[in-house]
Design brief:
alpha+beta, 16 strands, 13-stranded mixed beta sheet, binds 2-acetamido-2-deoxy-beta-D-glucopyranose, Carbonic Anhydrase II
Length: 274
Amino acid sequence: MAKFALQILICCLSAAIVMLSCPAMSQEVEDESEFSYDVESETGPLHWGDIKPEWHSCKNGSMQSPIDLLNERVQIVSHLGALQMNYKPSNATLKNRGHDIMLELHDNSSYLQINGTKYVLKQFHWHSPSEHTIEGRRLDLELHMVHETPSGSQAAVIGMLFKTGRPDPLLSSLTNHLEAISNSTEAEIAVGVIDPGLIRIGRTQYYRYNGSLTTPPCTENVPWTIVREVRSVSKEQIELLRGSVHDDSDTNARPLQPINNRIVKFNKPQEYQH
Ligand SMILES: *[C@@H]1O[C@H](CO)[C@@H](O)[C@H](O)[C@H]1NC(C)=O
Ligand SMILES: *[C@@H]1O[C@H](CO)[C@@H](O)[C@H](O)[C@H]1NC(C)=O
Ligand SMILES: *[C@@H]1O[C@H](CO)[C@@H](O)[C@H](O)[C@H]1NC(C)=O
Ligand SMILES: *[C@@H]1O[C@H](CO)[C@@H](O)[C@H](O)[C@H]1NC(C)=O
Ligand SMILES: *[C@@H]1O[C@H](CO)[C@@H](O)[C@H](O)[C@H]1NC(C)=O
Ligand SMILES: *[C@@H]1O[C@H](CO)[C@@H](O)[C@H](O)[C@H]1NC(C)=O
Protein backbone atom coordinates (compact mmCIF):
# COMPACT_ATOMS: atom_id res chain seq x y z
CA MET A 1 0.00 0.00 0.00
CA ALA A 2 2.70 2.44 1.11
CA LYS A 3 4.77 1.57 -1.94
CA PHE A 4 1.81 2.21 -4.22
CA ALA A 5 1.14 5.59 -2.61
CA LEU A 6 4.80 6.50 -3.00
CA GLN A 7 4.63 5.60 -6.69
CA ILE A 8 1.61 7.84 -7.17
CA LEU A 9 3.39 10.63 -5.34
CA ILE A 10 6.49 10.30 -7.54
CA CYS A 11 4.27 10.21 -10.59
CA CYS A 12 2.44 13.40 -9.55
CA LEU A 13 5.70 15.14 -8.71
CA SER A 14 7.24 14.35 -12.07
CA ALA A 15 4.04 15.47 -13.82
CA ALA A 16 4.25 18.75 -11.92
CA ILE A 17 7.89 19.19 -12.87
CA VAL A 18 7.14 18.44 -16.52
CA MET A 19 4.31 20.99 -16.47
CA LEU A 20 6.54 23.63 -14.94
CA SER A 21 9.23 23.24 -17.56
CA CYS A 22 6.91 22.52 -20.47
CA PRO A 23 7.10 25.27 -23.13
CA ALA A 24 3.46 24.57 -24.08
CA MET A 25 2.53 26.50 -20.91
CA SER A 26 2.95 29.65 -22.97
CA GLN A 27 -0.33 28.79 -24.70
CA GLU A 28 -2.31 29.47 -21.54
CA VAL A 29 -0.56 32.71 -20.86
CA GLU A 30 -2.25 34.42 -23.77
CA ASP A 31 -5.51 34.21 -21.78
CA GLU A 32 -3.93 34.96 -18.45
CA SER A 33 -2.14 38.05 -19.64
CA GLU A 34 -4.38 41.06 -19.76
CA PHE A 35 -2.49 42.72 -22.57
CA SER A 36 -0.01 41.71 -25.24
CA TYR A 37 2.43 43.23 -27.71
CA ASP A 38 1.03 41.44 -30.73
CA VAL A 39 -0.29 44.24 -33.00
CA GLU A 40 -2.63 41.75 -34.70
CA SER A 41 -4.24 40.77 -31.40
CA GLU A 42 -7.31 42.29 -29.75
CA THR A 43 -5.25 42.62 -26.59
CA GLY A 44 -2.40 44.25 -28.55
CA PRO A 45 -1.04 47.79 -28.14
CA LEU A 46 -3.54 49.31 -30.59
CA HIS A 47 -6.39 48.23 -28.29
CA TRP A 48 -4.98 48.61 -24.77
CA GLY A 49 -7.19 51.64 -24.17
CA ASP A 50 -10.34 49.58 -24.88
CA ILE A 51 -9.56 46.67 -22.55
CA LYS A 52 -10.39 48.43 -19.27
CA PRO A 53 -12.01 51.82 -18.62
CA GLU A 54 -9.13 52.77 -16.32
CA TRP A 55 -6.68 52.20 -19.19
CA HIS A 56 -8.22 55.05 -21.22
CA SER A 57 -5.00 57.08 -21.32
CA CYS A 58 -3.49 54.41 -23.60
CA LYS A 59 -6.07 55.57 -26.18
CA ASN A 60 -6.97 59.18 -25.46
CA GLY A 61 -3.83 60.45 -23.74
CA SER A 62 -1.88 63.23 -25.43
CA MET A 63 1.49 62.80 -23.74
CA GLN A 64 2.18 59.12 -24.30
CA SER A 65 5.48 57.22 -24.35
CA PRO A 66 7.61 56.02 -26.05
CA ILE A 67 8.56 58.65 -28.63
CA ASP A 68 11.25 59.15 -31.20
CA LEU A 69 14.10 61.33 -29.98
CA LEU A 70 14.75 63.15 -33.22
CA ASN A 71 17.74 65.38 -32.80
CA GLU A 72 16.37 68.29 -34.89
CA ARG A 73 13.38 68.55 -32.61
CA VAL A 74 15.38 68.46 -29.43
CA GLN A 75 16.04 71.65 -27.50
CA ILE A 76 19.60 71.67 -26.19
CA VAL A 77 19.83 73.08 -22.65
CA SER A 78 22.51 73.10 -19.97
CA HIS A 79 20.58 74.07 -16.84
CA LEU A 80 18.92 70.78 -15.79
CA GLY A 81 22.01 69.67 -13.88
CA ALA A 82 23.51 66.21 -13.30
CA LEU A 83 20.97 63.49 -12.46
CA GLN A 84 20.52 63.38 -8.70
CA MET A 85 20.42 59.71 -7.85
CA ASN A 86 21.07 58.34 -4.42
CA TYR A 87 21.08 54.57 -4.76
CA LYS A 88 21.77 52.07 -1.98
CA PRO A 89 22.06 48.25 -1.85
CA SER A 90 18.66 46.62 -1.43
CA ASN A 91 17.08 43.17 -1.18
CA ALA A 92 15.39 42.32 -4.43
CA THR A 93 13.12 39.82 -6.18
CA LEU A 94 13.19 38.89 -9.85
CA LYS A 95 9.74 38.31 -11.38
CA ASN A 96 8.49 37.06 -14.70
CA ARG A 97 5.37 39.16 -15.38
CA GLY A 98 4.50 37.43 -18.65
CA HIS A 99 5.13 40.59 -20.63
CA ASP A 100 8.53 41.38 -19.13
CA ILE A 101 11.09 40.54 -16.45
CA MET A 102 11.08 42.84 -13.42
CA LEU A 103 13.64 43.27 -10.65
CA GLU A 104 11.75 44.62 -7.64
CA LEU A 105 13.55 46.36 -4.76
CA HIS A 106 12.27 45.71 -1.26
CA ASP A 107 13.11 48.80 0.65
CA ASN A 108 12.62 52.45 -0.14
CA SER A 109 16.17 53.57 0.44
CA SER A 110 17.16 54.53 -3.14
CA TYR A 111 15.80 57.62 -4.79
CA LEU A 112 16.01 60.09 -7.62
CA GLN A 113 15.42 63.77 -7.11
CA ILE A 114 14.08 65.96 -9.91
CA ASN A 115 13.60 69.66 -9.35
CA GLY A 116 13.00 69.22 -5.62
CA THR A 117 10.68 66.19 -5.89
CA LYS A 118 11.85 62.89 -4.45
CA TYR A 119 11.01 59.70 -6.36
CA VAL A 120 11.77 56.35 -4.66
CA LEU A 121 13.37 53.61 -6.80
CA LYS A 122 10.88 50.70 -7.00
CA GLN A 123 11.84 48.39 -9.84
CA PHE A 124 13.77 47.76 -13.03
CA HIS A 125 12.37 46.05 -16.09
CA TRP A 126 13.54 45.48 -19.65
CA HIS A 127 12.07 46.00 -23.12
CA SER A 128 13.46 44.45 -26.27
CA PRO A 129 13.92 46.01 -28.80
CA SER A 130 14.14 49.50 -27.28
CA GLU A 131 10.91 51.49 -26.92
CA HIS A 132 12.40 54.93 -27.47
CA THR A 133 14.10 55.42 -30.80
CA ILE A 134 16.86 57.82 -31.81
CA GLU A 135 16.26 59.40 -35.21
CA GLY A 136 13.88 56.54 -35.96
CA ARG A 137 16.36 53.83 -35.02
CA ARG A 138 15.40 51.22 -32.43
CA LEU A 139 18.21 49.84 -30.34
CA ASP A 140 18.36 46.26 -29.05
CA LEU A 141 17.27 46.73 -25.44
CA GLU A 142 15.96 49.38 -23.05
CA LEU A 143 16.14 49.26 -19.26
CA HIS A 144 13.50 51.20 -17.32
CA MET A 145 14.30 52.25 -13.77
CA VAL A 146 10.91 53.08 -12.29
CA HIS A 147 10.65 55.53 -9.38
CA GLU A 148 7.58 56.75 -7.53
CA THR A 149 6.74 59.53 -5.12
CA PRO A 150 6.22 58.14 -1.57
CA SER A 151 2.42 58.43 -1.97
CA GLY A 152 2.66 56.40 -5.20
CA SER A 153 0.75 59.08 -7.10
CA GLN A 154 3.47 59.96 -9.59
CA ALA A 155 6.20 58.01 -11.36
CA ALA A 156 9.51 59.09 -12.86
CA VAL A 157 11.42 56.76 -15.17
CA ILE A 158 15.05 56.63 -16.25
CA GLY A 159 15.61 54.78 -19.52
CA MET A 160 18.93 53.30 -20.64
CA LEU A 161 19.50 52.08 -24.18
CA PHE A 162 21.65 49.10 -25.13
CA LYS A 163 23.07 47.67 -28.30
CA THR A 164 24.33 44.12 -28.77
CA GLY A 165 27.94 43.59 -27.74
CA ARG A 166 29.66 42.76 -24.48
CA PRO A 167 27.47 41.39 -21.67
CA ASP A 168 25.82 43.79 -19.22
CA PRO A 169 27.26 43.29 -15.69
CA LEU A 170 23.90 43.61 -13.87
CA LEU A 171 22.26 40.97 -16.09
CA SER A 172 25.41 38.79 -15.81
CA SER A 173 25.08 38.80 -12.03
CA LEU A 174 21.48 37.60 -12.46
CA THR A 175 22.09 34.90 -15.11
CA ASN A 176 21.15 31.88 -12.99
CA HIS A 177 18.03 33.56 -11.65
CA LEU A 178 17.04 34.71 -15.14
CA GLU A 179 17.42 31.17 -16.47
CA ALA A 180 15.26 29.85 -13.65
CA ILE A 181 12.28 32.11 -14.40
CA SER A 182 12.72 32.99 -18.07
CA ASN A 183 10.16 30.50 -19.36
CA SER A 184 7.60 30.46 -16.55
CA THR A 185 5.12 33.27 -16.21
CA GLU A 186 4.38 34.45 -12.67
CA ALA A 187 7.58 32.80 -11.43
CA GLU A 188 9.58 34.82 -8.95
CA ILE A 189 12.81 34.32 -7.12
CA ALA A 190 14.61 36.15 -4.30
CA VAL A 191 17.98 37.34 -5.54
CA GLY A 192 19.34 38.77 -2.28
CA VAL A 193 20.97 42.16 -2.02
CA ILE A 194 21.73 44.02 -5.23
CA ASP A 195 23.45 47.37 -5.48
CA PRO A 196 21.83 49.66 -8.05
CA GLY A 197 24.69 52.07 -7.36
CA LEU A 198 26.93 49.73 -9.37
CA ILE A 199 25.08 50.53 -12.58
CA ARG A 200 27.18 53.04 -14.44
CA ILE A 201 24.81 55.76 -15.48
CA GLY A 202 26.04 58.80 -17.37
CA ARG A 203 24.56 61.57 -15.25
CA THR A 204 25.22 64.70 -17.22
CA GLN A 205 23.92 64.13 -20.75
CA TYR A 206 20.32 63.02 -21.07
CA TYR A 207 17.01 63.65 -22.78
CA ARG A 208 14.10 64.87 -20.66
CA TYR A 209 10.46 65.04 -21.62
CA ASN A 210 6.99 64.72 -20.14
CA GLY A 211 5.44 61.34 -21.00
CA SER A 212 3.63 58.29 -19.65
CA LEU A 213 4.06 54.70 -18.50
CA THR A 214 4.61 52.55 -21.61
CA THR A 215 2.33 49.76 -20.34
CA PRO A 216 -1.32 49.94 -19.20
CA PRO A 217 -2.67 52.02 -17.53
CA CYS A 218 -0.37 54.37 -19.54
CA THR A 219 -0.58 56.99 -16.76
CA GLU A 220 0.64 60.42 -17.87
CA ASN A 221 2.66 63.22 -16.27
CA VAL A 222 5.75 61.03 -15.98
CA PRO A 223 9.02 62.94 -16.21
CA TRP A 224 11.20 60.82 -18.50
CA THR A 225 14.97 60.76 -18.51
CA ILE A 226 16.74 58.90 -21.32
CA VAL A 227 20.45 58.62 -20.70
CA ARG A 228 22.49 59.68 -23.74
CA GLU A 229 25.19 57.03 -23.44
CA VAL A 230 24.30 53.73 -25.12
CA ARG A 231 25.54 50.65 -23.27
CA SER A 232 26.09 47.06 -24.40
CA VAL A 233 24.34 43.77 -23.70
CA SER A 234 25.01 40.28 -25.10
CA LYS A 235 22.72 38.48 -27.53
CA GLU A 236 22.29 35.67 -24.98
CA GLN A 237 21.12 38.12 -22.34
CA ILE A 238 18.51 39.57 -24.70
CA GLU A 239 17.34 36.03 -25.50
CA LEU A 240 16.90 35.28 -21.80
CA LEU A 241 14.81 38.42 -21.30
CA ARG A 242 12.73 37.63 -24.38
CA GLY A 243 11.89 34.20 -23.00
CA SER A 244 9.42 35.97 -20.70
CA VAL A 245 7.29 37.46 -23.46
CA HIS A 246 4.47 35.06 -24.04
CA ASP A 247 2.80 36.16 -27.20
CA ASP A 248 3.52 35.59 -30.87
CA SER A 249 5.47 38.81 -31.19
CA ASP A 250 8.24 37.64 -28.80
CA THR A 251 9.12 41.32 -28.31
CA ASN A 252 7.80 43.85 -25.81
CA ALA A 253 8.21 47.33 -27.23
CA ARG A 254 5.15 49.57 -27.48
CA PRO A 255 4.83 51.33 -30.86
CA LEU A 256 5.94 54.99 -31.02
CA GLN A 257 3.39 57.55 -29.84
CA PRO A 258 2.66 61.00 -31.31
CA ILE A 259 4.82 63.75 -29.88
CA ASN A 260 1.99 66.32 -30.23
CA ASN A 261 3.32 69.65 -29.06
CA ARG A 262 5.74 68.40 -26.47
CA ILE A 263 9.25 69.70 -26.12
CA VAL A 264 12.12 67.27 -25.68
CA LYS A 265 15.09 68.74 -23.91
CA PHE A 266 18.61 67.46 -24.17
CA ASN A 267 20.77 68.41 -21.23
CA LYS A 268 24.33 69.01 -22.28
CA PRO A 269 26.58 70.85 -19.84
CA GLN A 270 28.32 73.94 -21.24
CA GLU A 271 31.74 72.28 -21.32
CA TYR A 272 30.45 69.70 -23.82
CA GLN A 273 28.99 72.35 -26.15
CA HIS A 274 31.34 73.61 -28.84
C1 LIG B 1 -10.36 59.89 -21.78
O1 LIG B 1 -11.41 58.97 -21.52
C2 LIG B 1 -11.85 58.94 -20.14
C3 LIG B 1 -12.85 57.81 -20.00
O2 LIG B 1 -13.72 57.80 -21.07
C4 LIG B 1 -12.40 60.30 -19.74
O3 LIG B 1 -12.81 60.28 -18.39
C5 LIG B 1 -11.31 61.35 -19.95
O4 LIG B 1 -11.81 62.65 -19.67
C6 LIG B 1 -10.78 61.30 -21.38
N1 LIG B 1 -9.63 62.21 -21.46
C7 LIG B 1 -9.40 62.97 -22.52
C8 LIG B 1 -8.16 63.81 -22.47
O5 LIG B 1 -10.13 63.00 -23.49
C1 LIG C 1 16.68 39.82 2.36
O1 LIG C 1 15.54 38.98 2.26
C2 LIG C 1 15.74 37.71 2.84
C3 LIG C 1 14.55 36.82 2.50
O2 LIG C 1 13.40 37.55 2.28
C4 LIG C 1 15.95 37.88 4.34
O3 LIG C 1 16.16 36.64 4.95
C5 LIG C 1 17.18 38.77 4.56
O4 LIG C 1 17.35 39.05 5.91
C6 LIG C 1 17.04 40.09 3.81
N1 LIG C 1 18.29 40.82 3.87
C7 LIG C 1 18.34 42.11 4.12
C8 LIG C 1 19.71 42.74 4.12
O5 LIG C 1 17.34 42.79 4.32
C1 LIG D 1 7.92 51.49 0.83
O1 LIG D 1 6.98 52.49 0.51
C2 LIG D 1 5.68 51.97 0.23
C3 LIG D 1 4.82 53.12 -0.27
O2 LIG D 1 4.95 54.27 0.50
C4 LIG D 1 5.14 51.30 1.49
O3 LIG D 1 3.85 50.77 1.22
C5 LIG D 1 6.06 50.18 1.90
O4 LIG D 1 5.63 49.59 3.09
C6 LIG D 1 7.49 50.72 2.08
N1 LIG D 1 8.37 49.57 2.27
C7 LIG D 1 9.29 49.56 3.25
C8 LIG D 1 10.11 48.31 3.36
O5 LIG D 1 9.45 50.48 4.00
C1 LIG E 1 10.95 73.39 -10.97
O1 LIG E 1 10.12 73.82 -9.90
C2 LIG E 1 9.86 75.21 -9.93
C3 LIG E 1 9.13 75.56 -8.65
O2 LIG E 1 8.40 74.49 -8.14
C4 LIG E 1 9.07 75.54 -11.18
O3 LIG E 1 8.81 76.92 -11.23
C5 LIG E 1 9.89 75.14 -12.40
O4 LIG E 1 9.14 75.34 -13.58
C6 LIG E 1 10.28 73.69 -12.32
N1 LIG E 1 11.20 73.38 -13.40
C7 LIG E 1 11.04 72.33 -14.18
C8 LIG E 1 12.09 72.12 -15.22
O5 LIG E 1 10.10 71.56 -14.07
C1 LIG F 1 12.92 28.63 -22.98
O1 LIG F 1 12.16 28.04 -24.03
C2 LIG F 1 12.76 28.15 -25.30
C3 LIG F 1 11.78 27.62 -26.34
O2 LIG F 1 11.15 26.46 -25.90
C4 LIG F 1 14.07 27.37 -25.31
O3 LIG F 1 14.70 27.50 -26.56
C5 LIG F 1 14.99 27.98 -24.23
O4 LIG F 1 16.18 27.24 -24.14
C6 LIG F 1 14.30 27.99 -22.88
N1 LIG F 1 15.12 28.74 -21.95
C7 LIG F 1 15.42 28.30 -20.74
C8 LIG F 1 16.31 29.18 -19.92
O5 LIG F 1 14.97 27.27 -20.29
C1 LIG G 1 3.73 67.56 -17.63
O1 LIG G 1 2.44 67.74 -18.14
C2 LIG G 1 1.45 67.93 -17.14
C3 LIG G 1 0.10 67.97 -17.82
O2 LIG G 1 0.09 68.91 -18.86
C4 LIG G 1 1.75 69.19 -16.36
O3 LIG G 1 0.79 69.34 -15.31
C5 LIG G 1 3.14 69.09 -15.74
O4 LIG G 1 3.50 70.29 -15.12
C6 LIG G 1 4.16 68.76 -16.83
N1 LIG G 1 5.44 68.52 -16.18
C7 LIG G 1 6.56 69.10 -16.59
C8 LIG G 1 7.80 68.75 -15.83
O5 LIG G 1 6.61 69.88 -17.53
